[in-house]
From TrEMBL:
Protein name (database record): Spectrin alpha chain, non-erythrocytic 1
Keyword Repeat set for record: yes
Keyword Repeat applies: yes
Coiled-coil spans in chain: none
Signal sequence bounds: none
Length: 145
């Protein structure tokens, strides 16, 4: 699971239950109101509408990623958050993400968006890697203005 949410995944299932997800969001600086058990929590419910629309009670890595990327358009707190989310998608935490990894982990629209906005990844010798995208540069470009 994406750092810093990995340690909230107590049973190491690769997904978070709603309580773990809420703790994770708080750790990321989301200002969620404290509500008593069983009390309505409209703010958290609206986040769940995005990350767990089927309300299966769990948030998967894919759902979390989709949420972080959709938040990107709503002014995410830091480029590090999104960068670490992309790093979790790329195998072995590479500095680039492949087309396949994007389509495996995001919705088609999100993957298309990333591919159309990300520059091809160049290795240390200035060679372009086939179907590899530079998520670091992409993430930083989101936070320029």
């Amino acid at each position: 699971f994406v750092f810093p949410c990995r340690h909230f995944d107590k049973d190491k299932s690769g997904r978070l239950n709603h309580q773990e997800f809420k703790s994770c969001l708080r750790s990321l600086g989301y200002d969620l109101p404290m509500v008593e058990e069983g009390e309505p929590d409209p703010e958290f419910e609206s986040i769940l509408d995005t990350v767990d629309p089927n309300r299966d009670g769990h948030v998967s890595l894919q759902e979390y990623m989709a949420f972080m990327i959709s938040r990107e358009t709503e002014n995410v707190k830091s480029s590090e958050e999104i960068e670490s989310a992309f790093r979790a998608l790329s195998s072995e935490g590479k500095p680039y993400v492949t087309k396949e990894e994007l389509y495996q982990n995001l919705t088609r629209e999100q993957a298309d968006y990333c591919i159309s906005h990300m520059k091809p990844y160049m290795d240390g010798k200035g060679r372009e890697l086939p179907s590899a995208y530079d998520y670091v540069e992409f993430t930083r470009s989101l936070f320029v203005n």
